[in-house]
Amino acid sequence: MKKIAYILSMAVVFSSCEKLVEEKVYTSLDAEKLYENVAGCEAALTGVYGELTKHQYYGTVFPQMAQNLCGIYTTEGTQIDNKFSNGSGTLFINWHWEAIWQVVARTNDVIFNVNKSQITETVKNRILGEAYFIRAKSYFDLVRLWGGVPLRLEPSKASTIHMARSSANEVYGQIVKDLNEAKKFLPEPAGAPLGRPHKYAAYALAQKVYLTMAGNDPSSPNWQKSIDDGLAVVNSMAYSLVRPYARLWQLPNKNSKEGIFEIQGSVVNTGDGASLTRFFLPGFPGSNLTPLADTWGRGKVNKEVYDGHMKEYPNDPRIDITYLDSSYRNRMNTTTVSIYPVAKTGRNSFTFIKKYVDPAYTGTSSNTNIIYMRYAEVLLMLAEAYNEIGNPTQAHAYVNLLLARARDLNGNNVNEPSEVSPANWMGMNQTVFRDRIMKEYRYELLGELDEYFQVRRRGQAYFKSILDAHNAYAPTILNVSNTNGFDYIVPTDPTTMNKIMLLPIPLTEMAANNLIKQTDQNPGY
Amino acid sequence: MIKNLSLLCLPFHFLKKALLSIIMVLFFLSNSSANTTKGIADDILVTGKVIDQENNQPLSKVNVTIKGTAKGFTTNSNGEFSISVPNKKAILVFSYIGYLSEEIPVGNRTEINVTLIKDAKAMEEVVVVGYGELRKKDLTGSVASVKVDDKIASQSASMDRLLQGRAAGVDVVSGSGAPGAALNVRIRGIGTLTGNTEPLYVVDGIIMNTASQEVRQASTNGNYSQENQNGLTALNPQDIESIEILKDASATAIYGSRGANGVVLITTKKGKEGKTTINFRSSIDVSQVSKRIEVLDGREFALYDNEFAVFQNQVPLYAGTKIDSIKTIDWYDYSFRSAVSQNYRLSLSGKTQKTSFYMAGGFSDFQGVIKNTGLKRGDFRINLINEISPKLKVTSNTSLIYQINNWAQGTDRLGQGNSSMIRSILRKSPLIGLDTLSDIAEDEFLSGESPKTWFEEFVDKSTEFRMLSSLTFDYKFSKLFAYRMVLGADFRTKKRSQFFGKGLWMGMTTNGRATYSDLNYTSAEMQNLLLITPKLAKKHNLSGTVGVTYDNNLTSQTSTVSENFFTPALGIDGFSLGQNYYPLTLGKSQVAVLSALSRAVYNYNNRYFLTATGRYDGSSRFAPGNKFGFFSSFAAAWKISNEKFFSSINAISDLKLRLGWGQTGVQSIAPYQTRGLYNANTYPLPGGSLSNGQIPARIANEDLTWETSEQANIGLDLAVLKNRVKFNLDFYNKKSVDLLQNFRIAPSNGFLSLARNFGTIENKGFDLMVDGVVLENKSFKVSVGANFSINRNKLLDLGLPISATGIEKLSSYFGSNISTSNINVPANIFAQGYPVGMFWGLKTNGIVQRADQNLPTYKGARLQPGDIKFVDQNKDGIINDADKTFLGDPNPAYNYGFNTSVSYKNIKLDVFFTGVGARDIVNANWQFDGYASNRNANIRKEAYYQAWRPTAESNTFPRIGVSIPSDLSDRFIEDGSYLRLSNLNLSYLLTPKNKRVFSNIEFFVSGRNLLLFTDYKGFDPDVNSNTFNGSLIGVDFNSYPNSKSVNFGLSANF
Predict the structure, then answer these.
(1) Please, is B473 exposed, middle or buried when counting C-beta atoms within 10 Å of its C-beta (0-12, 13-18, 19+)?
(2) Contact indicator for B4, B13 with CB cutoff of 8 Å
(3) What is the tens place of the pLDDT at every residue in B226-244?
(4) What is the pLDDT of residue A154?
(5) Domain ranges (residues) in chain A
(6) Which residue among A287, A457, A499, B133 has the highest number of C-beta atoms inside a 10 angstrom radius?
(7) What residues 190-219 of chain A have any CB closer than 8 A to a CB of chain B?
(8) Is B253 in contact with B631 (CB distance < 8 Å)?
(9) Which residue of chain B has the CA closest to A153?
(10) Average pLDDT in the A433-444 region?
């Protein structure tokens, strides 16, 4: 009895003793404190951007995955199989899925909490606008990579951990909705901090979203929607083309007037720092372009891509800026390494992408930015869309704006007699224009991580034509059976083609999300 | 006898043989009963000496009386006595507190030397059970005691190593063979999914629950990891007097929410009655790597390279006579050494009238068998007890320790030669320049990544200071009440730094890299206990403890990295020479536990025993509303041997049946899981500097609460032949419910896990311990001990949907990936209905012999001759995840250990074996050394000689040039059963006649790990490379190899 009485009395004492076992927090903030003032809300928004530069996202995984699976690069990284045998357990696919969703969750957290916050309206609107912009970008990437996905628009709770896939159309609907919010909330260019999107970034992204939604359907109303948003961008005069083309890739010129959205790089963003320098410049031995540390050289351009560009525009100044070809000095400057087109077979018979040279590259990070979108693409998309709606005049006009910049070697914006290639387009019919404009994206934007989407956006037959071009161009393929080999015949049978338009929903999602069943998996996985 | 006992090693025959042994013992003893002689005479002067049977030391103040008279005498400080007896019929009675009395008829002798044996009953009278002591006879729970032999203790850096094989139901697995490496201790199986299976360690009543505590991984490069250091190295095993392991819930429930993994109670040495003794102990230990993995030697490697060249359509480099001019190096000889370890320790102990003291200090240097590695430690302890008054006693225990640990880079996520030192030793080409083919100087040839660069350009060093201190006041109010207050403190500061020079891949890609991380831990504990012994009627005995305890600890950790060194000259000390800094991160967390506890122990007439405990715990880890929980236990015992009807059974001296049931909890989940907090990250500003961001750290789960373990235990204690042979047998069924899990949630939530309570694990099994004195007479003693345990582990409920997983339909989740290298897949699956952490992957069926269009494809390519022949389980023509299935079980089916101690006069031999049965290991090292796939890397001899060749088909190893499949297959699963001769110890006690300098010296020679019986092909089957990682269990991945050693030493008492 005594004991029971004691315990009971202790229970009474204890309830007033909760203070003794209060959980004290020292080095972390909770939502209430974080979103209390402007600086805190800004930090939460910065947190969203910080997630983009992680190893699992732009740091390594997305570049590698996108290059491996687009058919115009060869990589020696073994994490993704170039021959499309990846399954729902492929680590890099899982990681990328996780990384995008982490960005979505962070934007949800910002939108949810900033809305409740008492900070000044202007700042609040800008933060919300950026968060909607990033969320739209994330869902846009998700829907293109995986098709319909769960629509998570609020911070997850223990009670909402399971969620079914929405249809791709619903996801696109949400993207448009978010971009409308972003258009509404984001400031005019003058009100936006450098390196952050302003109002017209949202229009540009919307232009691209509509263009993607139009797919390969000439009668889609989305072509016109895309044009409308594209024109809003052009007419805003918010962006302009950097001249010459080479200047775009000189480090002091990052965040130029051409950049619509750039993911910021800095050597001091160590560890996780996203770096295409590491990914695209030749590795082991590295080149003297990165004297401090070796790079990886995982993204190597296929021969037909380089040769195609050379053949189409032999004197295109963009070639010299885009490709590292023929040879390079190794990092210690002791030997010369021959590469394509000098080396025609074997491991070195490829060119590299030269857009991301940074001598200060440290081994994990560099100062180069990753340009998610730039104004050149706005012009190309306008040209493409005008061509589809049967307005060749506008179509030619917009692509020629870009070609004029490309051949303007000295960047004086004057068309000099020596600047002939690439020449202006004239009098192409709709089909030829369509074929050429799709290639033009590649020449202009090679190595800017959009190829994965570009090759799929017009459907399976178009993607197959890209792969067929590669397979037809591979007389030097060695050791086909060796997965660590140097070049590949890519399978293009109907089963594979049906499968590779989308990635598999990762096993980690399937196994933990009660509302996504095996029958909901993407075709072929 | 010995032959019979050695059969004990065969666990299947264990019981049978144990019975046989008992019969043998009975037989033996019946022959050895003493004969007495009779004689008649007058006053005789008898002299002699009394010594302690246990350590052959003289016993002073022993009462020597003549039976039936008041005449008596006591022995002097040398244990000597002289007494005159009336006649030969006189019987001398030797008695001493705590020892069995001896009655010896004088007979014709004038010199009688007596060896007194400690009274087992008196000795075991009191058992430390947590918040007090219990008389052993009152014990109703399952408690195993482990005696610590100083000779073995001094060879061990941490006390948890001493538990290996010593107690039934305790499974100890090493993280690696490195000095100071962490161990996984599991009591009665894996009962939790948090990964933290470590029991609660309590030193002299104060919680030291930090075996798994380590500094942060400073590196943000996900491929790099540093080996876990053992948190228990801060307690010198030589200071330990005894260890009690509380196994069942009726014993551990007094520890409430912290006792579910079992409790290890450590009692340090105290000063003993008698004159001050000074002990000096010194030993030198020479150890060598216990096993080599045979890779190709230089000539073989050149042949291999030639063959590879042909495969690659190239000209062989070492053709013809060129092979005779190669220069080679044996990287084993280069990297391993005969490590010489030293241990010196001086201790003083004794007791004056009211004060007893134990003081000890010393220095140990444990050298690792790999160059540059080791643990150096200096420590000091002072334990004092002062009886201020008959009512008030003060006890103070304090230890200070400082240690420096130098590590190898063994297991890491990438695991290749350029990221693991251990791998580099095995992998590096043994060719070091060619006299005729190349003019590259040897030095230059070695300048790339190799063991040489690892030893010259890599440092991983930790330093630690720790103080454990406690102060206890015992105040006796009356016969009924005693009050005890305990104040305890634990201060720990630890720093760890790594440096990678430019010759190593990590340093090369970052232009030199240094990491720094530190840990500051302070813990304070207070206990207020009331010990009550109420007076009840005769034969009714009741005692109880009630109390309130509070403990509060604060952990603070910082870490940072520096890169881009313009000179590596200063190594880790030149941290600030780096030109790129990672921001310093600081993490600080606090955990507080407030508890009320009570225990009542009742017995009726020493036959029927009841124990009830209850503990009410409040923990800061949980949200308001869920902070408090109640844990209780009930146990009963029936001492059958005290029943009247039993008194006629002489062979059995003690028989006790125990039944217990109770609940304990687990709260070992990181703090702050119930709160939505934010972590920092960074994002560059356009100017290049960084801005700080904040991101949500988790999905908060306010409903989080304790994981509860319910355990029922039935035990039997049996002692026969006057307590000379003892058995303890326990059957248990332990069910852990509401498992605390970092529950894998759909990544689309933006988080990978959510801390929550869900699921059930069951552990069922039995523990058997046998101890016996087989033979004993004046000069000869043989004793044996053995333990054996079986545990069956099963995940009963996981709360995940059933989905098609490989060829099975399972509710399951996978663990984390083995490596980021070739085998970039998980090893373990956690599946409902199966043991925790089963291995998962592809089955194989030898090697593909002939080309066949019907063979399945793997990673897009059809299997070709010489490839590993994976089994296409679903016959769809494609080898992929859908063909995966269970491959093995990392949980041991049984553990055992046995020891024999033989002493003859002053010579003593101790032999100790330990073993594990039916445990599978993923030997992940095969992905590097088991395939002839990389021309630049060395491989195992058999992978070369038994490789499939078009001209010599083989069904064991794939072809030369094969690419390494990136899936786990049954080729990696090995039987990790073993039987090990853990210790062999021979000692000689020298007692000089002239005792002016010292009273005795013991010399000993001791062998550790001299014999190992196993089929395991890695370095050692006692391995779990990822200690404390609950999602990667039972994998051997570049772990530091084990060593064997011979130890010489002496222990002198002054």
Answers:
(1) middle
(2) no
(3) 788 888 888 899 999 889 8
(4) 96
(5) 372-406+422-488
(6) A287
(7) 194-195
(8) yes
(9) B749
(10) 96
> What element of type H or E holds B728?
strand B725-737
d(CA B89, CA B38): 7
What's the gap between Cα A503 and its chain centre?
A: 15
Q: Is B967 in contact with B842 (CB distance < 8 Å)? A: yes
Inform me whether the pLDDT recorded for B376 exceeds 50. yes
Of A274-288, B28-42, B210-224, the range with the lowest mean pLDDT is B28-42
Q: CA-nearest residue of chain A to B581? A: A268
Residues of B whose CB is below 8 A from A484: 963
The answer to whether the Cβ–Cβ distance between A24 and B620 falls below 8 Å is yes
How is A302-353 classified by DSSP, letter by letter?
A: -HHHHHHHHHH-TT-HHHHHHEE-SEEEBTTSS-EEE-TTTS-SSTT-SEEE
Residues in chain A within 8 Å Cβ distance of B744: 508, 511-512
Would you tell me the crossing angle of helices A121-146 and A91-116 to the nearest 10 degrees?
160
Give residue B218's pLDDT. Answer: 73
Where do we find the tokens 């560009």?
A309
> How far apart are the C-alpha atoms of B734 and B252, rounded to whole Å?
13
Q: Is A179 exposed, middle or buried (0-12, 13-18, 19+ CB in 10 A)?
A: buried
Residue A432 above 90 pLDDT?
Answer: yes
Which of 388-427 (A) contact B at CB < 8 A?
Answer: none
User: How far is CA B744 from its chain centroid?
Assistant: 29
Phi and psi torsions of B444, nearest 5°: -70, -35
What is the DSSP secondary structure assignment for residue A449, as one 8-state letter?
A: S
**Averaged pLDDT of chain B:** 85
Q: Please report the pLDDT score of residue A487 as a whole number.
A: 72
> How is domain A372-406+422-488 classified at the architecture level of CATH?
Alpha Horseshoe (1.25)
**Inter-chain contact A266–B671, Cβ cutoff 8 Å?**
no
Identify which of B561, B694, B966 has the shortest CB distance to residue A34. B694
Residue B13: predicted pLDDT: 42
Amino acid residing at B427: R
In chain B the first and final C-alpha atoms are separated, in Å, by 38
Place of tokens 């060598």: B288
pLDDT at residue B211 in the model: 72
Say how far apart CA B584 and CA B574 lie, in whole Å. Answer: 16
> Would you call B672 and A163 a contact, using CB atoms and an 8 Å cutoff?
no
CB contact under 8 Å between B220 and A270, yes or no, is yes
DSSP assignment of A84-118 = S---TT-HHHHHHHHHHHHHHHHHHHHHHHHHH--
Residue in A25, A50, A514 nearest the CB of B677: A25
Among the residue ranges A308-317, B63-72, B963-972, the one predicted with the least confidence is B63-72
pLDDT beyond 70 at B125: no
Separation in Å, CA B1013 to CA A326, B921, B1010: 59, 16, 10
A25-77 pLDDT, tens digit per residue, is 998 999 999 999 999 999 999 999 999 998 889 988 999 898 889 999 987 66
- All residues of chain B having their beta carbon less than 8 Å from the beta carbon of residue A16 are none
- pLDDT for residue B1023 is more than 80: yes
B181 closest CA partner among B189, B169, B173: B173
The pLDDT value given to residue B437: 39
With beta carbons less than 8 A apart as the criterion, state whether B662 and B653 touch. Answer: no
Contact A174, A206 (CB under 8 A): no
Contact: B749, A27; criterion CB under 8 Å: no
Minimal Cα distance from B809: which residue of A? A511
More confident residue, A81 or B469: B469
A322-336, B135-149, B364-378, B452-466: segment of lowest average pLDDT: B135-149
| Dihedral over alpha carbons A246, A252, A255, A256 (to 10 degrees) | -50
Q: Which residues does chain A have within 8 Å of residue B881's beta carbon, measured at their own beta carbons?
A: 87-89, 507
